[in-house]
Amino acid sequence: MIFSPDGHCRPFDASAEGTWAGNGLGCVVLRRLRDALLSGDPIISVILSSAVNNDGNRKVGYTALPSQGNRRSSKRR
């Protein structure tokens, strides 16, 4: 069985055993740079560019890794 028998998984511990269900949430709030600067908000990161692509019928399914064309649509800086 994948679940911990006693309900405690103790990650990173020598007595770690199994897993346990959990919940989590993440949120990213985006604002235009100009507006953030005018408001005095802390600038943590700036998005320089973005891209969107669709592999269409050239992929096995939505869980499959993207094709070369999809990889080329994004550049690392």
Topology:
Layout: H1 33-39, H2 68-72
How would you describe what is shown here?
This protein is mostly helical and 77 residues long. The chain has one domain. The protein contains 2 helices and no strands. The longest helix is centred in the middle third of the chain and has 7 residues, at 33-39. The protein is flat. Its EC number is 2.3.1.41. InterPro entries: Ketoacyl_synth_N (IPR014030), PKS_NRPS_Biosynth_Enz (IPR050091), Thiolase-like (IPR016039). Residues 54-77 are annotated as: Disordered.
Strand content: under 5%
User: What would you report as the Rg, rounded to the nearest angstrom?
Assistant: 21 Å
What is the residue-averaged pLDDT? 78
Question: Any idea what the shape is?
Answer: flat
Order of helices and strands: HH
Q: Domains counted in the coordinates: how many? A: 1
| C-alpha termini separation | 43 Å
Query: Helical content, roughly?
Result: 10-25%
Low-confidence runs: none
Q: Kindly state the number of beta strands.
A: 0
Main pleated sheet? none
Structural class given helices, strands, pairing?
Answer: mainly alpha
Helical segment tally?
A: 2
